[in-house]
Amino acid sequence: MKKFLFPILLFSIIATAHSQDLKAKIKIDIERKVGEVDSLLYGNFTEHLGRCIYGGIYDPKSPQANADGFRKDVLDATKNLGVSIVRWPGGNFASGYHWMDGIGAKESRPKRKDLAWGDTESNQVGTDEFMKFTSASGVEPYVCVNLGTGTLDEARNWVEYCNAPTGLYYSDLRAKNGHPQPYHVKYWGLGNEIDGEWQMGHKNAEDYSKFALEAAKIMKWSDDNIKLIASGSSNYNDKWIDWNRTVLTTLHDYIDYISLHHYSGNHEKDHYKFMAITTRVDNIITITEGLINEVRSRYKMQKPIYIAFDEYNVWYRAFNEQKLEEHYNMQDALVVAMYLNTFIRHANSVKMANLAQLVNVIAPMMVTNDKLWMQTTFYPLSLFAKNAHGESLQTFVQSDKYDAGDYKQIPYLDVSTIYNDKTQEIILSVVNRHQDKAIETSIQNQFGKLADKATVYEVNSANLTDENTVTEQKVKTKEKEISINADNFTYSFPAHSFTMIKIKVKS
Ligand code: AHR
């Protein structure tokens, strides 16, 4: 009998937690600084894949195209999204890409089979075109070199082509192609996901690290101002920690960042498990921070090594046949907001993040013929990019918790807090993970006086499954002003919502 009672009891405890009125407390102290939130956290990624480059950012036949063939609506939406940096040309594509194919007269560029995704690559968008895209959209370029099938010389020559003043073979070639001024590309990736067996030129940790070290040396010797990002883990098997340790140990003198990748999905159709997924991301970051500390301490390093989370997103429905055109819903928008909350909580170590990808392919914006529209995930991303700047704060959060499968003691509220001393504002970002309960939260300010009004931005929709389409934006940001009467105020975070509150502080 007892054997049966226990699960029933457990079920009713969990069910009660999900059904009773929930309360929480958040304490904000602007003196508890974690680290500066780098604007590169609001980065993105464009890969030669599906309709991201061709038919996305670049479509010379579209009525939306500018004189260079780039879609004006995509350029405008990229600015509107607040994107700071864009990684290119891949992804998996980068591991088979030979950059010399993509320069010079467009009609003479070779067509090649891309073995990463199976498409024919026309090479109509290459280095000079990507640079035009970055300057037209006001973003920083981040180039990932081919350390899969590529050579050391290719990597080094690409730096020379982009960054050297004229007078050398490759910089003169750039001038001949119409660009005498160097592009000064600062961020360079040392390959993509080389730990994955799906990668062209996959290597084990030792082989990758040796090869990447030689590439790093000659790339830095070509331009000492560049920042290098080593290919960290993307494949969280039992060897991922060893991979990151080997990479950091071998490359520590040359690299500025180690990259991490993570994709998530509601594979089990379990809301609460899906909502807990970023606790895994938090764990991956914390372990990598530990590895960085270990290596920096062993080599008595002064130079920091940061984390570039240069691919992250929700991605679980659309694979090859659909060219990865995922349609996002309200639930996915919450997960994207939680990725950003996680990066902000680790603002001392995570100094770059790139949502994969920008347009059409697992993206916050889509183009349907001549119309661009925003997916649900666009809204939290743009709110963060536009408002979430300053110092990340360590924040006390007391909230009811739940267990879901392997995920234990997950607080219903996922919170990050920033203090911007230029604008003297607190930016509080809160995801209420609860499926159907609002959470009344006492927000207590520990230092300075809060202004008597605050701006609230909310991303929400009646159903977690609500999606946007080319004709309807069910999920979007709603803005309102609220009055605050004292330093301790109460706010009720609606069920399954993302809320950002911006409040001035008078010191
Ligand atoms: O973003 C889609 C793919 O996901 C990228 O090409 C690859 O790096 C990752 O596995």
Describe this structure in words.
The chain has 507 residues and is of the alpha/beta class. It has helices at 2-19, 72-81, 127-137, 152-163, 169-176, 205-222, 240-251, 271-275, 278-298, 330-345, 378-387, and strands at residues 22-28, 33-37, 43-45, 85-88, 112-113, 120-121, 140-144, 187-190, 227-230, 257-264, 306-314, 350-356, 365-368, 371-374, 390-393, 396-399, 401-404, 407-411, 413-420, 425-432, 439-445, 449-460, 476-483, 488-493, 497-506. The protein has two domains: 21-34 and 393-506, Immunoglobulin-like; 37-389, Glycosidases (TIM Barrel, Alpha-Beta Barrel), CATH 3.20.20. The chain is built from eleven helices and 25 strands. The longest helix has 21 residues, at 278-298. The radius of gyration is 23 Å and the shape is globular. It starts with a helix and ends with a strand. Alpha-L-arabinofuranose (AHR) binds next to loops.
Briefly note the CATH topology name of the largest domain. Answer: TIM Barrel
CATH superfamily name of the largest domain? Answer: Glycosidases
The biggest beta sheet reads: 8 strands, parallel, barrel
Indicate the percent of residues in helices: 25-40%
Mean pLDDT score: 95
Strand content: 25-35%
The stretches of 5 or more residues where confidence is low (pLDDT under 50) are 1-18
Counting helices, strands and paired strands, the structural category is alpha/beta
**Name given to the CATH architecture of the largest domain:** Alpha-Beta Barrel
Strand order of the largest sheet: 3-4-7-8-9-10-11-12
Number of strands: 25
